[in-house]
Amino acid sequence: MKRLHVLTLLTLSVCLLCMLPGYDCVASSDENQAELEATTQSWRERYLQLGQETYQGNCSQCHDEGVDGAPVVGDEESWNGRSPLWSAVLLEHAKSGYLRMPAKGGCAELSTREVEAAGEYMLSVTFPNLPRD
Predict the structure, then answer these.
(1) Quick count: other Cβ atoms within 10 Å of Cβ 45?
(2) Domains in the chain and their CATH numbers?
C-alpha cells in the first residue's frame, strides 16, 4: 500500500512538471514527424510509395526504356495488346515471369507484396485515370 502512495506521488509530480510553461514532455524529432506523416497517409498512398521504391530500385532498368520489349511506364502505346485483365495478369506475370521477363524481374529476394506494389505503381503512372479495384 505504501508503494502505491509513492508511485501515485511520483506520477503526480511528473504531471505537474509537464504543466510548467516552456516544459516539453514529448521530444519531437524528425523520426517522430516521419512516423506521424506515415500514419496520415492512406493505405493506398503507402502501397504506391512501396511500389515506387521497388520500381525504381529493380524494375526501372527495363521498364524506363523498354528493354527486350518491356512496356514503358508512362507510355500507354507500349501497353497496347496486353491483357484486358490488367492487374491480375500483370501481377501474375511479374511474380512468375513471362516471355523475356524473369520472375520478380530477376530479383528473387523481392517479396510478393513488393512485386505487386511495383505493378500497381506502374499501372497508376501509365493509366492515372483508370479506376482501381
Answers:
(1) 11
(2) 43-128 (1.10.760.10)
Instruction: Look up residue 75 and give its three cell numbers.
Output: 507510355
End-to-end Cα distance, the chain? 59
| SS3 assignment, position 74 | coil
C-alpha–C-alpha distance, residues 132 and 87, integer Å: 9
Quickly count: other Cβ atoms within 10 Å of residue 124's Cβ: 18
**pLDDT of 63-73, one tens digit each?**
999 999 899 99
Q: Identify the weakest region by mean pLDDT among 1-5, 6-10, 64-68, 100-104.
A: 6-10
Q: Is 19 helix (H, G, I), strand (E, B) or coil?
A: coil
The Cβ of residue 125 has, within 10 Å, a number of other Cβ atoms equal to 16
Residue type, 6: V
CB distance 71 to 63 below 8 Å: yes
CB 125, CB 73: distance < 8 Å: yes
